[in-house]
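Forwarding the complex inputs:
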Amino acid sequence: MTLRIRPPRLGRLRLGRDARLGLALALPVALIMGGLVFLPLLSTLFDSLFRVEPMKPGSPFVGVRNYTNLLKDSTVNAAWITTAIYVALAVFIETVGGLAAALLLNRIKIGRRWLLAIVVLPWCLPPVVNAIIWMWIYNPSYGLLNGLLLSAGIIDTPQVWFNNRETGLLLVSVVHAWRMMPLTVIILLAALQSIPAELYEAARLDGATGWQRLRKITLPLIAPGLAIALSQSTVFAVNLFDEAWILNGASLDTRSVIIQVYVLAFQNMKFSSGMALSVLTMVISLAVSMIYVLRVYRETRFE
Amino acid sequence: MSRRFKHLPGQVGLCLGVALLVLWSVGPVYWSFVTSITPPNALVSDNLHFWPQTTTWEHYAKLFGATSTSQGNEVASVWPQFSRAFANSLITSLAATALVVIIAAFGAWAFVRLEFPGRNVLFVLVVATLAIPAYTVMIPLYRLMISMGLIDTYTGVTLIYVSAFLPLALWLMRSVYQAMPLSLEEAAWLDGASKLRAFVQIVLPLAGPGLVACGILTFLSAWGQFMVPLVFSPTLATKPLTVLIPEFVTRNYVDYGLMNAAGIIAILPPMLLVLFLNRYLVSGLMAGAGK
Amino acid sequence: MKRRHFLLSASVLGLAVLAPSLTRAAESLAVLLPPWVTLPKEMTDTYTGGGLDIQTLGWDEIRTKIVTSMLANTAPASVTEMDWSWVGQFGSAGWYDPLDALLTDELKADLPTTSIFTYDGKLIGVPYNNDFRVLIYNAAHLTAAGVAVPKTPAELLAAARAVKAAKIADYPIALPLSASEGAATAWYLLTKAFGGDLFDADFKPLFIDPASAGYQAMAFEIAALNEGLIDPASTSLKDVEVQELFKAGKATFDVAGWAGNLAVYTDPAKSQVAADVAAALMPNVNGKSRTFGLPGALGIPMNAENKEQAAGFIQWMLEPATMEANYRLLGNLPTRLSVLKTVNEAGNLKQGDVLIAQAEVVEPLFAQGTPGWYPEFSGAVATALNAAAKGQLTVDEAVAQIAAAAATAQE
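Prediction (whole assembly, three chains):
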C-alpha cells in the first residue's frame, strides 16, 4: 500500500500538482478523523433520536423527544449553570495566569528551560492523581489548606470546604485551572516568541510605556494564539469531569454537565438521554469557541 | 547591559513573579511527595508538618518490592503490574506523539500553502472536533474497534489518541506556518526546488519549536488519558498507569501514601521528556526570536 | 526525501490495518474482577479448568466497562463481578444468564445472600465475597466513659453523649453524610435499626411519615450532627474517609461498620486503635438486630464465550478451600456460612462470633430484589441527605424530595 498517487484519472476535473500533493498530505488527517470521530459521531446523533434504554424492551424512534425532555429537566438545567460557572472561573484563571506566566517566561533569560519545565509540571500529573492530591489538600480534618489558613490566622476553625456551594465551585475550578494552565502558557509563549524584537525596540524609541506596548503590540500579535488558548480552555472546562467527580462525587452543588451525562447514561442507564445531553454539550462548547475565534480574528486584521 | 540596572524594581518584581509561579506549580506536587514518604499513621495526625517527622519509603517499596500488602495481608508484588502499565503508558503516548507530529507537520503545511478542493471545510471540521466530549463517541467507537479487532491493542489506543490530539496540533502548526514569511519558500522555488522539497529543507527546520510544542502537548495529553484506555485497554497487555493507579483504592482502605507514591513515579517520564525537549523548545524559540 | 516521508505515513497506516490480526491471544477464560480480588498464584494454581485471564479494574470503572461493552453487544469478559446494587438494572436489561442450575439445594442453603441476586425469580449472580454492616466500636472509649455497648439507637445516642461529655472523643459517632453512596447506605441501615423498611411490597415509600423508621433514622442523623456527636466535616467525607477518623481514635462508633473492615481496623500498621476495636450486633429499637448485606457476586454475561468454563470457574470460587484462601490471602469474607464458621473455629476471624451472629440475620435491602431504578433512587437519597445535613433542607423536605425522586425513577 502506498499513498504515492499516480496522476489520477478524475475525468473532467484536472487537479494541479499542488492540489494532488495537498490531498495526499491531508489524506491521513481525513482518514483518521473521519473514521474515528465523524463516523462514531453520526452514529451517536442517530442513536439519540431513538429511545435506547437497556432496561426497557425495544428501541422505538422518538424524534427529538430525548432533547426536549432534557430542556425540562431541572437537574440538567442546574448542571448547565454549574458548568457555566466552571467555564467562567477556569478560563479566567487560566488566561490571566497563563498570560502573566508566559510574559514572565518570555523575559527570563537565565534558566528558562528549567522554569518552563517547572511550569509544565502540573500537567504531567495524570488527572486521576491530580484530583487525589487535591482531595488530600482540601481534606477537612488533615488537609493542607485548613492547616495553612489556621496557622496564618485567617480562619479559627477547620472549614469543611464543600459544605458551601460557592467555595466548592471555586475549589474545583482551581484544581482544573492548576492542571490546564500550562497548556495556555505553552501556546502563548510560542506566540510571544514569534513577535520580532525590533517591534518592541521601535516602540520603546517612540516612548511607549510597558502597558502601551502590551496593548498595541503584544496582544494583537498573539491574538491567534490567544484564540486557540481561550477555546482550548473553554472546551476543557465544559468537559470538566474528573475533578468534580473525585472531589465531591455526584453532589448537585458541583455536578457538571458531563457528570450528568455519566449519571444519565451509565448510572441510570438512560443511554439515549445521556447521548443527547453530550451532543448538546458539544454544540454549546463549539458555539462558545466560535465566538472567541471570530472575535479575535476580526479584531486583529492589523495589516 | 547598563540599562538593565535602572530597572531594579522591575527585576525585583520579576523575581517575585518567578517565586510565585514556582510555588503555584510545585507546591501541590511537593505536598504529594511529602505524603508519599509519610508513614500511614502519621498521615492522620493532627499537626501539619511541612517535612514529615519520620520518613518512610514503604510506599515506594510496595511499588518496587518483591512482596506487597493488601488489606493487611501479604500479597504478590504489584511491581510486575506497575512496570507493565508504565511501559504501556510510554509506548502508547510516544507512538501517538510521533504520529501526531508527523501528520500535523505535513498536513498543516498543506492546509496553509497548498490549494486543494475541500481544504477549508476539512480544516474547520477537524478543528471543530475538539469540542466533542469523549462520552459522545465512546460507544460507537467501541463497536468500531471491536469489529476491527483493535480492542486491547497498542494500535487501537494509539489511533484513538491520534484522532483526539491531532486537531489541536494541526491548528497550532497552521498558525506557525502562517506566521512564516512566504518569501523563504519562494526563494527556493526560484532555484528550481519542488514545493515539497522547499518545505522539508527550509520551512520544517524553522518550525522546530512549534513541532516540539505539539509533541509536548500530545505526549502530556496522552499520558494523562483515563476514560479512553479504561474502555479500550481492559487488560495489562495495554493498560496504562492512569487506569492502574485507581485500583490501589481498595474497597476498605484508601492508601493515600501508595497512590501519591505512584503519582510521583507517574510524573517522572513526562518530566524527563519535557526537560529533554525543552532544550530544543527553548533553543528553537530563541533562534526564532533572534532572526 | 519525498518518497521516504510518504512511505512512512503509508507504512503507519498499513500497520494499523495489519496489527490486530497478529495480536489475538490464546484462548483462556476472561474474568473481570475488582482489585481486591486479584487472585494470587497460590490460588490460581489450584484452579484446574484451564487458562485464566484475570482482568482487574477499579470499582467505579468495572460498571462503566460492563455497561459500555453490553451496549455494544459484546461481553466484557466471560465472568464478571456483579454488585448487589446492579442486580435490578442488569436483570431487567437481560444482560446476565440465569445461574440457578449451578447451585445444589444444599449450597443454596449455605449461601444466605442468594436472594439479593435474584431478579424476576432468576438467580443472575452467585455471591462469593461477603459484606454486611455491623456496629464497630472503640472498647477503650466505652470503658473510659463507663458505658455499656448500646443495643438500641437511643442507647447509642446516650453512649455517644457520655463519651463526648467525658471528653474522650469530640465527635463519637462516625457516619458519612457527603453526597455519596456510602451516606445513602448508612441511612438504609439506620432505617432497619429503627425497625422499618424503605418501601412496601409495591415499592411505595414508607419513609415520609414522621413516625416511620426512615424518617426517624434521618432525624437521628441530623440531630446527632447538630448536637455535635458527628463531626461536622462528615458532610464532605465519604465512607472510607470517615473510617479514617475511627482508625485515628477520633470516633467511638463506626455505626455503619463494614464486616470486612475489622481486619483493617485491628491491623496496627493501619490503625492507631488496633487493640481497642470490637464489634457488636447492629442496635435495633426492637431489641432484635437487623442488618443488610452488600455482597459481591459473579455473573456470566449472556453473550459470553466459553460459558461452560465460566460456570466451572464460579463453582471453583465457591469451593470451601478457595473461599478460605480468598479470606486468608486477600481478606475477602466467605459468603458460605459453613466456611465462615470453619474460619472462625480456626481462630482466624476477628470478632468472629459477632460476625457469625450478624451474618445469620443478614437480609437484602429490598425484599423483592434490587430494583432497576435503585442507582437513580440512591443518588437522590445521597443528594437529599447531604443537603439536609448542610441545613439546606429540613428532614421533611428531604424525605419528600427523595419520595419524589423515587416516583420519577420508577416511571
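Residues 1-12 of chain A have pLDDT under 50 and may be disordered.
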